[in-house]
Amino acid sequence: MCLGFLRDGEWKPSSRMSTALEYVRQLMLDPVPEDAVEQAVANEYSNNKKQFIKTAKLWTKTDGNDGPWSTFACRVGTPPQTVRVLASTAVPETWVVSTGGCIATDLPDCPDSRGVVFSPNASSTWDNVGNFALDVEKNLRNYSSNWDNGNYGFDTLSLGYLGSGGPTVETSVIAGLNTKDFYLGSIGLSSQPLNFTATDNPAPSLLGNLKTRNQIPSLSYGYSAGAPYRKQVLQRVRLWY
């Protein structure tokens, strides 16, 4: 943060926290892009103020059709499509709402309330695998013969908004949701690999991919489900670096 008196050697015993908070407030009202921590965000602020404001609103957005859920942002495909998803400890892959998730008879805000729709056809790096059952439903009663399918494939996945510094996995397993049984997509936190048709050639989980690439040192994570209606606690995941 570009506050001079917070730099090494500038903070003094006489400095007051109230003064620091006032500086932070002023900085939020009048940012200084020339001294930014995230240069990509500063460039957007300087060169495209309209998009900067739109992005800032997305960063604080909640989603869902049954109450405000705090979601995570990730970017899928090439060029990247930004979507907002929940976290799931049950699956190892990433689920995103696909083009069949919102149809002509749905309300106009369907794509936005579902965290934005991902279009595989608009991604030059989408490698389609096929339709497979969303295996998480196997634990639900009366779903033994009526599972929802996901359109599975491999694509580039980046965690966080542009400029957030999140990691990228070029060949991550993505499942496109064309059903409303799962209203929002999810980032899979399970470390188990996936099998499509052959058990001797499993696809690594998202966490497995990150660890193999030395982007995280272990498969451990911390997860808070979040409840914005109770003390404004937001959902968060921390991968242990």
Calculate the terminal CA-CA distance, rounded to whole Å: 22 Å
Number of strands: 11
Low-confidence region ranges = none
**Class by alpha and beta content:** alpha+beta
Radius of gyration: 20 Å
User: Kindly state the mean pLDDT as a whole number?
Assistant: 81
- Residue share in β-strands: 25-35%
Summarize the amount of helix as a percent range.
10-25%
Based on CA inertia axes, which overall geometry fits? globular
One letter per element, helices H and strands E, the order comes to HHHEEEEEHEEEEHEE
- State the major sheet: 7 strands, mixed
Number of helices: 5
What would you note in describing this structure?
By secondary structure, this protein is α+β, with helices and mostly antiparallel strands. The chain has 5 helices and 11 strands. It has helices at 17-29, 39-47, 49-59, 110-113, 206-212; strands at residues 62-63, 69-70, 72-76, 81-88, 94-97, 127-133, 149-159, 168-177, 185-188, 221-224, 236-239. Strands 3, 4, 5, 6, 7, 8 and 9 form a 7-stranded mixed β-sheet that branches. Helix 2 packs across helix 3. The mean pLDDT is 81.
Structural descriptors:
5 helices; alpha+beta; 11 strands; 241 residues
